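Tokens for chain A. Residues wanted.
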């Protein structure tokens, strides 16, 4: 089968991904074999491409957000049949979905209805799972939520899920007119500019406290104003905490901090069925967030997708359709 692969970590300027023939996946007993019809492209994959090389003589196949059709079922799978239309994530420790077929544990996959296009479905799994696990981990006393990076894939879905599942006031951050408009379309009650005085903007809008901040980008640099807007004993959920971070401003308010990485349950083999259940909820509760559709499993389309996600100005989700059937 065809797949997009690379050997050595590299920057976008030296894009070294190639389309080659590789062996078919070898499904495990709990796996589905899926014919991939569309893949979502994520900033995390760009980061891996920049930093992770294959072992000597090996190759890397990235991509862990897909929609497609079940082509085979393992003996320890349940609830799926050949021909089912599905979406899912896959496993960061295994070959990904930048390929014509992917083998994936059936517990991190859900069926999708016929009326949901493959490209639309492929925009939901990673951002939706990340948002769900982050914002619904601790909802006690949460009435006002601030989503940092509300126009991105994760922020877009967090805003939708909060508005459709809770009664919370949802504030999103965005700095450009087009991203502010997108946040409003996702359901945000208020949009503030994270490059300006966030606390002042909130006060001017009559918001005197934030119970939960969900930060999807720039968390380390924003710790100061995040601590400023959070109430004492509030909550910070973050998806991008890396390197040294000064948590002193949070400690002064006894803020609870939790991080989120969408593959944690998969890598640990812990409660994988929860992933599938959340994905099923996303199908019924979340609106697709595709803003850029590219076509064909090619080096050029993947390079363009990574240019978009690395620009820092992406809104919504970039999806690549592998077939003519959206």
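Reply:
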């Amino acid at each position: 089968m065809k797949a997009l692969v690379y050997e050595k970590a590299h920057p976008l300027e030296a894009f070294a991904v190639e389309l080659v023939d590789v062996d078919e996946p070898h499904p495990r007993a709990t796996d589905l074999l899926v014919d991939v019809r569309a893949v979502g492209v994520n900033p995390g994959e760009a980061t891996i491409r920049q930093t992770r090389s294959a072992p000597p003589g090996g190759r890397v196949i990235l991509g862990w957000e897909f929609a497609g059709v079940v082509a085979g079922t393992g003996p320890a799978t349940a609830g799926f049949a050949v021909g089912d239309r599905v979406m899912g994530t896959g496993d960061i420790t295994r070959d990904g979905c930048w390929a014509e077929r992917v083998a994936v544990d059936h517990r991190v996959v859900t069926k999708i209805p016929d009326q949901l296009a493959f490209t639309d479905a492929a925009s939901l799994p990673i951002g939706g799972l990340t948002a769900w696990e982050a914002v619904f981990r601790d909802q006690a006393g949460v009435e006002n939520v601030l989503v940092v990076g509300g126009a991105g894939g994760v922020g877009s879905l967090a805003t939708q899920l909060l508005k459709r599942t809770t009664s919370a006031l949802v504030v999103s951050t965005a700095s450009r007119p087009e991203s502010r408009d997108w946040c409003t379309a996702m359901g945000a009650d208020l949009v503030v500019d994270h490059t300006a005085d966030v606390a002042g903007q909130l006060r001017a809008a009559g918001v005197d406290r934030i119970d939960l901040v969900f930060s999807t980008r720039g968390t380390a640099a924003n710790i100061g104003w995040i601590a400023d807007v959070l109430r004492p004993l509030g909550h910070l959920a973050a998806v991008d905490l890396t390197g040294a971070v000064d948590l002193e401003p949070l400690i002064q308010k006894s803020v609870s901090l939790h991080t989120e990485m969408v593959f944690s349950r998969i890598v640990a083999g812990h409660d994988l069925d929860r992933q599938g259940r959340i994905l099923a909820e996303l199908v019924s509760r979340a609106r697709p967030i595709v803003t850029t559709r590219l076509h064909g499993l090619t080096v050029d389309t993947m390079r363009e997708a990574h240019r978009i996600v690395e620009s820092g100005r992406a809104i919504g989700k970039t999806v690549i359709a592998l077939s003519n059937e959206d």
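The domain at 2-126+265-321 is CATH 3.90.180.10 (Quinone Oxidoreductase; Chain A, domain 1). The two ends are 21 Å apart (CA to CA).
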